[in-house]
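Hi,

I'm pasting everything inline rather than attaching a file, because the server keeps stripping attachments. The sequence lines come first, and each chain or strand is labelled.
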Amino acid sequence: MSGPETSEKLVGDEMGLDTPPVLAVDTLLDDPKTRIIVCCGSGGVGKTTTAAALGVRAAERGRKVVVLTIDPARRLAQSMGIASLGNTPSKVAGVSGHGGELHAMMLDMKRTFDEIVEAHAEGERARAILANPFYQSLSAGFAGTQEYMAMEKLGQLRARDDWDLIVVDTPPSRSALDFLDAPKRLGSFLDGKFIRVLMAPAKVGGRAGMKFLNVGMSLMTGTLSKLMGASLLRDVQTFVAAMDTMFGGFRTRADATFRLLQAPGTAFLVVAAPEPDALREAAYFVERLAAERMPLAGLVLNRVHGSDARQLSAERALAAAENLEDAGIVDQESGKAGLRDSDADTGTTDTGTPDTGTTDTGSPGADMSDADVDEITVGLLRLHAERMQVIAREQRTRDRFTSLHPEVAVAEVAALPGDVHDLAGLRAIGERLATGVPAGA
Amino acid sequence: MVSGKGGTGKTTVAAALALALAREGRRTLLVEVEGRQGIAQLFGAEALPYEERKIAVAPAGGGEVYALAIDAERALLDYLQMFYKLGSAGRALKKLGAIDFATTIAPGLRDVLLTGKACEAVRRKDKAGRYVYDHVIMDAPPTGRITRFLNVNDEVAGLARFGPIHNQAQAVMKVLKSPETAVHLVTLLEEMPVQETADGIAELQAAGLPVGRVVVNMVRPHHLDEEALGSAAGERRADVAKALSRAGLGGSRRGGLAERLVDPLLAQAAEHTGRVKLEREQRSVLEGLDVPTYELPLLGTGMDLAGLYELATELRKQAVDE
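And the predicted assembly:
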């Protein structure tokens, strides 16, 4: 196994770029001042798995953690015991050590919205809102509702103060930025002047100077009524009227959550895969967080490929494969000069295979011909060449990010051959996150 | 309609499909709805405006591909202008936040506008009465949202029980549910995307929306026979070292350069076969769905314009337009 030092050296040698600072995951998890970790990034980069793995690791290092996931894979949810939609955290069995605990929950967007209504309105009124068609559509998840409810839930969990660390996964938005924008947008709509106009056009015209505007308003509500159909407009008006009186203002709530995200106890982790789209989103997000003065802890780069045979370049591997295919007539001695000795010692293990001592005997029992051995060796070499091409491509993509944001600390997580859906897998991811064990090790 | 879980390459597949369908003398329109400018990036073009533009000529003497990034807000203003001649009142609405409100919050309105614009392009004819576009391909929202996105017209039609929006929604829904529409789902041979694909198909079918094909993307070549690999890792290990040496990679004795490559190369091979096994499992799950598939290879050099044409050619080989 190669340690992080060797890999860094290798990467540095090959690329001639400064490597970014390494994200100290355990320091972040152990710091009692860290109260909220938000995992964000574009879809399909492993956000949920990262959040769950951080939760497991923090709990096993002694913290009382709750993980709020949005849309986990079924088997991952099952392994954490949150497959059923409870909308409240439940304790995850099998996570222990140093007095820590792990709780987890999956966000039920509609239920969260319903609960807000029920908590703020009396029986009859609450029932009227819950039955309103406009409310039903809105709460079932149109643009922004999921993001808003995730933030609402985060606020609730933080207010309960039952946990010393909350790890939040963010909704699978089209873009990572939706998560920051949607709550504010929803808040300002439900709280905004347009809604008030819808509600009571007469009020706006209170001052003489507003008369003209008032005419515009009735023209507008008239148009809206024509457009949406009077019944929908009425539904919206009823809904807004009901919501308006019972809320302390949507915007106020959205603002409060926004401030919570800016607070010193919050740490953002931008999650990405080493692919152009994901890292482009990550770069946007890093810039946006800075603009909003939200504390960025670093970048988690998932699914990074590596190799323990980096000393063999793709080109040489392919050339060697061709040599073998061309009947294998190659001068054995001349090949030696090709490899650089300095790099060649990474990645080998001295233990293990018993028959490495001799080079002159094939096993008599094997029914593979020498041609078969050559064929499989060609396969090994081609596979390696592909791997090296992937590594080079990923490195270029990362270099682009690093040159834009050299200050951002990075934790790399090696690509795993399969999906993660049990605690052991999450622990392994957590270990890789924390120790920066590079891909291929 | 091309949908798929995030990270499966649905934009790429949509673009390749638009190229593949643009045979000689034909014209396709590639539509984007999520404001990401993914199409422009893919074709190395400038950000697309709200305007149909020629973006590429298809391979092998093919037809033309046009592209359009639909913006819900602009689509609503256009719509209001078209039906109500709103002019300055439209601007006033915008100032007040009403347009923003309508396109962001009003249930499904945004989605109706997006699909509505695409349907308009589908039905548009030139002066000679010919369809302007032979095919319209939409890079649609991801699998998790696709049914709601397409079916939202139903939902809107239910909410707005009469009026122009109601009628518009009905008309759009008729096109979307017709045999002229196909919803293709892009997946990788990995557990989560396959699971989402299965769920997506079930949802689309339940909503009466036409499921097209499953596009299995980034399929890896398989170089190695598992059994042979077992022997290579076991009793024939020394012979592998010798073969590497013969290939010109150094000495095959213990500690020799070629010999030291054996373990890492075998480890990579084991990882590879492990993944192949998982892929096989996922493939059988897909087969169980009983939906026809296209397969697209993983491009080793990463995605660029040349790769996109390669994928389009591949789709044509798989008789994409028959």
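The first helix of chain A runs from residue 4 to 15.

If the labels don't parse on your end, tell me and I'll reformat.
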